[in-house]
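Example record

One chain of 279 residues, shown exactly as stored in the release files.
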Amino acid sequence: MTDRLELADFLRRRRESLRPDAVGLGGGARRRTPGLRREEVAMLAGVSVDYYARLEQSRGATPSASVVTAVARALQCDRDERDHLLHLAGHPVPRRGGDGHIRPGLIAVADRLVDVPAVIITDLGEVVWQNHMGRALFADLPVGPGRDRNLIWRWFDDPQSRPMPQEDWDRISAAHVSDLRATFARRSGDRQVREFVADLIDLSSEFAQLWERHDVAIRRTDVKNFIHKDIGLLEFRCEVLLTPDDDISLLVFFPLEGTETADKLALLGVVGTQSLTSG
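Predicted structure tokens for this chain:
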């Protein structure tokens, strides 16, 4: 059962206690009230301003567990605070590990990587946070949570939209599957993992064939080439920084030495997610 009054009170107090620079937002014009604005929390959580406002006003529909988790992430709640929010919203608290929660300190570290793309993903491949350059590199990711933000799901769901040269596809496909195999072994009793793998097998014959090979490997570094629709070919050395529980990873994309990627990234940082061909 949802405790609307307590949920609203917690959200409001948490929002008012956060400074804009703590979540990667500029201070901007002088603020009449402390903390973040409602529209800023809504933007960070991937929900509408009206929807979030209703939560703080103790009205509207009960938020789903995924929305509560996204709001907790936007408000930089730690795991205990996130679990408390889920409890107030009437949802069961997930087991620790594999729940997609990001420590605020990890976001603070990643947000200081201002000149290279950085994204944080779950061990199932869902992008749960991006810095400015990460949003520019993965500009087509939707805002809200779900499988449309999952890099493994997107890779096998629509191969023709893969943002990498075709000669790299076999290698990247195999790496995705072998990495997921390691997660499957570590979290073998987790229903979410079993359902995700089963849905991928139904979705893609390529995935199913690779899964049958039973290759297992955790990726810690890789060379990745991206074809950006405006900038062209970008060549990276991708470093994968695992958290102690291995349920969240920070991916940092460093330009390959001897390529034009660093100069192109500087341009991408200026234009952001705006199209260079617009107007």
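Notes: The longest helix spans residues 169-186.
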